[in-house]
């Protein structure tokens, strides 16, 4: 009974995380009017870092070079490279392509698990993956057709692989027994350190006047405190409770949440094709989870 309760908590936390991450696209779209993608990225994680310090201000002491290396790897992969590759890919290819390609991350996670001998790649997972990818393609492309751009699509594929590697680093960090707020905070610090050289090289600016405008401030607080600080904590918790592969399956739902919230907030239309895509995506998730 206790094991089932832990699993249920893991599923609910994973759902909450994906729900918040799905909304981030709406907030980011609004902020792109006044800010460059890299400016949004840096500001949101600085806000998230400040929030984590306020929640748990206790200093995290150095433990070992191995653990510090894992924390740095998590910051490099999950905070810096994933978002950088995704943002750069947007300059080469269509957002619809990226939405589909980045959602292949659960397959990479499952393939890594199979290669390490941790988990077998079952027919349920493969069938669910195919169904979900078909659904995500219908949602993202929505009748516009496939537009191939090698550079952009490869960058998006690399982003999916990077998130898979990040998930395994998180799995390792969960075994160390440290306070999760301190671990996430240290990860953010490393991520920001890795982002800063690119930020300055691209002449990024921190525009305090624009940040403090009510609409921008609300969206930055949501991205920083909710989608960054809270979600990176909750994702690590879900990985700990469910395992890396099963938690990753929820990534399929990100385009579903995005399209529904865009319909509710931005009044973007939902076509019959998108509805079919949503049903396929959710159905694929259910089938994959049966493993």
Describe the protein.
- This protein is mainly alpha-helical.
- It has one domain.
- The chain is 78% helix and 0% strand.
- Helix 2 (37-55) packs antiparallel against helix 8, helix 4 (95-102) packs antiparallel against helix 6 and helix 5 packs across helix 7.
- The longest helix has 30 residues, at 2-31.
- The model has no long low-confidence stretch (mean pLDDT 86).
- One of its GO terms (cellular component) is membrane.
- Residues 9-140, 152-288 form the EamA domain.
- Pfam families: EamA (PF00892).
Itemize the secondary structure elements and their pairings.
Blueprint: H1 2-31, H2 37-55, H3 65-90, H4 95-102, H5 105-115, H6 123-141, H7 150-174, H8 180-201, H9 208-211, H10 214-242, H11 244-248, H12 254-265, H13 272-289
Helix pairs in contact: 1-10, 1-12, 2-3, 2-8, 2-10, 3-7, 3-8, 4-6, 4-7, 5-7, 6-13, 7-10, 8-10
Strand content: under 5%
How far the N terminus sits from the C terminus, by CA atoms, comes to 20 Å
Mean pLDDT: 86
**Largest sheet data:** none
Radius of gyration, CA atoms, in whole angstroms = 19 Å
How many alpha or pi helices? Answer: 13
**How many separate structural domains?**
1
Q: How many strands?
A: 0
Helix content: over 70%
Overall shape: globular
Low-confidence stretches: none
> Which H/E pattern describes the elements?
HHHHHHHHHHHHH
Structural class: mainly alpha
GO cellular component, one term: membrane
Keywords: Membrane, Transmembrane, Transmembrane helix
Domain EamA: 9-140, 152-288
Main location: membrane
